[in-house]
Amino acid sequence: RHNIELFDMVRVDHFRGFVGYWEVPATETDAINGRWVQAPAWDFFAHVKNELGDVPIIAEDLGVITPDVTEVRQSFGFPGMKVLLFAFGDDLPTNPYAPHNFERECVVYTGTHDNNTVCAWFENEATPEQRDRVRRYLGGHVSGREIHMQLIRLAMMSVAKVAIFPMQDVLGLGEEARMNRPATNEGNWLWRLLPEQMDPALASQLREMAEIYGRL
């Protein structure tokens, strides 16, 4: 309830855990010896709706998602997540993160807190094949200095209900601005947006995109 008062939308991480979760006995020394347990998703979200009404939830449904998870998400009207950095594998034509495969009820991100920035991904992490797919998908030459705005535009023009961009991508920052490196203990969550980084010209550019693609 408090989060709804603070934010326009609330993302529920690991949404699949509300439908089924991996249970490991406390006596085990690792997570291998466990079992899948069905969770009371229908009752839980029905209670949430009865108490709070139509909650503006984004369901984090990245990774391997089973049909029962999708059924719960769709039944309660929670949009799922699409991350553009995941789109450019060798399965691009059928990849669910490629914009031509989006459904309306989704939220598109260029990347999340767990990914590198778009610029750093394109320059340092993407394979030559992935960079080539990005260029072919966008229909022309793309450089590391402009890739962030190209993907922001791609997200804006998609059918996704909502488009969200990390400020690091809006500003076109590199590896130094990465927010989090999963499975590491140091150097995470240190980046901060400074007042002098706010650029009125950049804000105007984003507004123009939002207006052109019907997102105002």
In short:
With 216 residues, the protein is α/β, with parallel strands linked by helices. Helices cover 34% and strands 12% of the residues.
If you had to describe this structure to a student in words, what would you say it looks like?
- The chain is 34% helix and 12% strand.
- With 216 residues, it is of the alpha/beta class.
- The protein has two domains: 1-23 and 35-78, no CATH class; 80-216, no CATH class.
- The protein has a three-stranded parallel β-sheet, with helices on one face. Strands 1-4 form a two-stranded parallel ribbon. It has a two-stranded antiparallel sheet with strand order 2-3.
- The two termini are 26 Å apart.
- The mean pLDDT is 96.
Feature tags:
8 helices; alpha/beta; two-stranded parallel sheet; 216 residues; three-stranded parallel beta sheet; 12% strand; 2 domains
Shape, please? globular
Stretches with pLDDT under 50, minimum 5 residues: none
Provide the spatial order of strands within the biggest beta sheet.
5-6-7
The secondary structure category is alpha/beta
Query: Helices and strands, in N-to-C order?
Result: HEEEHEHEEHHHEHH
Q: What is the radius of gyration computed over CA atoms, rounded to a whole number of angstroms? A: 19 Å
What's the N-to-C terminus distance? 26 Å
Q: Can you summarize the main beta sheet?
A: 3 strands, parallel
Percent helix, as a range, is: 25-40%
Count of DSSP E strands?
A: 7
| Strand portion | 5-15%
Average pLDDT taken over every residue: 96
Provide the number of structural domains.
2
Q: With helices defined by DSSP (H or I, 4 residues minimum), what is the helix count?
A: 8
